[in-house]
């Protein structure tokens, strides 16, 4: 129809409107970031002057601004192996955690994998008067510690919060139980903690919820936020007359007359006969006939020269050489040292435990009383370099955190994932098979960390190391670990009978409920850090740097 514009004439206008809409969305998203992020650090420019490195002598590691491998995006790089690192950024204003939702999020890329080290952040509470960032160290008090940590059998995404006991006035570390594991690859991963101060925390890895925990639940945190009402009386002592031996030697038993304690374990086999062809006059070893005395040999300084020995070739063709002796066999008369058999102890009162008393540090609360976040610190010890931190975010909205993941993390992750798949395909290892191996290795590491397998820990870790280097032997490694596991279980189940605990005095033999005393708690993370170097050196002896 005349007067009506054709579609072809409208095309430039439509393209302009689409482009303008897209640009507006990007601009709006950028403004949304700027308006809603409480704190955001993209490391797009030099961090010096804004982030302060610790001046303590123990922190020798050098921080650098570096591009993420394969991207134009910059991050904060751990640049040296086997070093301690400490860096801190004071916030312009402390962030309250009370009666609100706070989202903590950051990206980490383990560009050279992670055999032994931490890649977590510490969200520091306000420090004492006179504290300076240059003094930041492992003892600087924090409100929350969050992020990946891996060494030996340790493989977890930490979430630890410190809470002040209102009765004792002491700060107690509360560790999340059954934490997520650290992704075992060299890709960029984003870690998110959604903290609802009045109730719970949710841990996300790459935007996927891995753990949900309630702050007041004893099943979710160790020790529990609310202490036990009672504790064992530290002043209660076991009475001298208390007999806690379930069985005792039979006082009426007498050693049998036939029991010879002096009989040897082994005796000569009198029925043995020297094999035919035994060469009695031939020595087992002879001088090497081709050996010659070195020209530089000095008899006065080096002693009389003797040629090296070789196995006598005549002996390899005969049953044996040298003087023949009858072989030894087990002595059927051997009994060993005689012991009185055990009988039930008529005086047994059961396992003694101290009586329970009211816990002076017990308190009630409906919600935790968190300290505010005044600074963000990275204080780690690691055997690997190449750890890259990026896009550290504090927000009061889950949507803002999700927006950052979508625009800053997801594009990088997709590129890295595609590259990884291409490399694995080129190496003849399909992505599906790689994923199966990863699941198997994660499971094997968890099995190695089971407490009753402590004696076999290093053996299992060595097997896993070999399988990670040679995926084709994974099946054999699984069989070996299963054999070890079944052996230990067999010993536990059939190695000896457990004694039945007899009835005994009330309030003494009954099982006492153990309460957590905040004043005596030791830090799991500090223990991990103190043991980390030994564990790392053990693992470095069995695994190559990647």
Report on this model:
25% of the residues lie in helices and 26% in strands. It has eight helices and 25 strands. Strands 2, 5, 7, 8, 9, 10, 11, 15 and 24 form a nine-stranded antiparallel beta sheet that branches. Strands 1, 3, 4, 6, 12, 13, 14 and 25 form an eight-stranded antiparallel beta sheet that branches. The protein has a two-stranded antiparallel sheet with strand order 16-23. The termini are far apart.
Helix amount: 10-25%
Please, what is the average pLDDT? 83
The proportion of residues in beta strands is 25-35%
SS field, number of helical segments:
8
| Uncertain runs | 17-35, 496-524, 535-546
Number of strands: 25
Task: Provide the structure class.
Answer: alpha+beta
Distance between the termini: 71 Å
Radius of gyration: 34 Å
The shape, in one word, is extended
Largest sheet: 9 strands, antiparallel
Features:
about 550 residues, nine-stranded antiparallel β-sheet, eight-stranded antiparallel β-sheet, 25 strands
Describe this structure in a few short sentences.
This protein has eight helices and 25 strands. With 546 residues, the protein is an alpha+beta fold.
How would the blueprint of this fold be written?
Elements: H1 7-36, E1 37-41, E2 52-53, E3 63-67, E4 74-78, E5 83-95, E6 101-110, E7 116-118, E8 121-124, E9 142-151, E10 154-164, E11 171-176, E12 188-196, E13 200-205, E14 208-214, E15 221-222, E16 230-232, E17 247-249, E18 266-268, E19 285-287, H2 299-302, E20 309-311, H3 313-316, E21 328-330, E22 342-344, E23 356-358, E24 373-382, E25 387-395, H4 398-426, H5 431-448, H6 457-469, H7 474-494, H8 524-540
Helix pairs in contact: 5-6, 6-7
């Amino acid at each position: 129809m005349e007067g009506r514009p054709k579609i072809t004439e409208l095309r430039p206008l439509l393209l302009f409107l689409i482009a303008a809409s897209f640009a507006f969305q990007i601009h709006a998203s950028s403004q949304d970031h700027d308006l809603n992020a409480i704190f955001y650090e993209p490391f797009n420019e030099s961090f010096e002057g804004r982030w302060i490195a610790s001046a303590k002598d123990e922190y020798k590691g050098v921080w650098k601004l570096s591009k993420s491998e394969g991207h134009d995006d910059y991050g904060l790089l751990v640049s040296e192996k086997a070093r301690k690192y400490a860096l801190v950024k004071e916030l312009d204003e402390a962030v309250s955690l009370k009666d609100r939702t706070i989202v903590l999020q950051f990206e980490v890329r383990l560009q050279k994998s992670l055999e032994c080290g931490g890649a977590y952040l510490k969200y520091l509470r306000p420090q004492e008067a006179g504290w300076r960032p240059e003094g930041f160290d492992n003892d600087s008090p924090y409100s929350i510690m969050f992020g990946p940590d891996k060494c030996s059998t340790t493989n977890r995404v930490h979430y630890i919060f410190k809470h002040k006991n209102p009765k004792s006035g002491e700060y107690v570390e509360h560790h999340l139980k059954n934490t997520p594991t650290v992704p075992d690859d060299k890709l960029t991963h984003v870690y998110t903690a959604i903290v609802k101060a009045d109730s719970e925390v949710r841990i996300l890895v790459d935007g996927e919820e891995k753990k949900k925990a309630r702050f007041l639940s004893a099943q979710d945190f160790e020790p529990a936020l609310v202490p036990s009402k009672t504790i064992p009386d530290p002043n209660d002592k076991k009475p001298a007359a208390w007999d806690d031996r379930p069985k005792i030697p039979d006082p009426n038993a007498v050693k049998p007359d036939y029991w010879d304690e002096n009989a040897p374990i082994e005796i000569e086999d009198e029925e043995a006969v020297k094999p035919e062809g035994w060469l009695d006059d031939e020595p087992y070893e002879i001088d090497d006939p081709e050996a010659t005395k070195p020209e530089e040999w000095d008899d006065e300084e080096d002693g009389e020269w003797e040629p090296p020995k070789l196995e006598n070739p005549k002996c390899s063709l005969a049953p044996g050489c040298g003087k023949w002796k009858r072989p030894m066999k087990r002595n059927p008369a051997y009994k060993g040292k005689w012991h009185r058999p055990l009988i039930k102890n008529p005086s047994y009162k059961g396992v003694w435990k101290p009586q329970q008393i009211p816990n002076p540090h017990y308190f009630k609360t409906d919600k935790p009383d968190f300290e505010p976040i005044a600074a963000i610190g990275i204080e780690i010890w690691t055997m690997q370099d190449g750890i890259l931190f990026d896009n550290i975010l504090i927000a009061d909205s889950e949507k803002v955190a999700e927006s950052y993941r979508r625009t800053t993390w997801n594009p990088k992750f997709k590129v890295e994932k595609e590259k990884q798949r291409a490399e694995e395909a080129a190496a003849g290892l399909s992505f599906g098979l790689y994923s199966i191996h990863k699941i198997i290795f994660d499971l094997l590491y968890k099995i190695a960390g089971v407490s009753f397998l402590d004696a076999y820990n290093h053996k299992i870790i060595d097997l896993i190391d070999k399988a990670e280097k040679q995926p084709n032997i994974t099946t054999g490694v699984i069989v070996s670990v299963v054999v070890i596991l079944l052996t230990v279980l067999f010993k536990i189940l059939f190695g000896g009978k457990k004694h039945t605990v007899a009835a005994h005095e009330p309030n003494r033999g009954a099982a006492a409920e153990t309460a957590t005393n905040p004043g005596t708690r030791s830090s799991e993370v500090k223990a991990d850090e103190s043991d980390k170097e030994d564990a790392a050196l053990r693992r470095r002896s069995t695994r190559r740097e990647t």
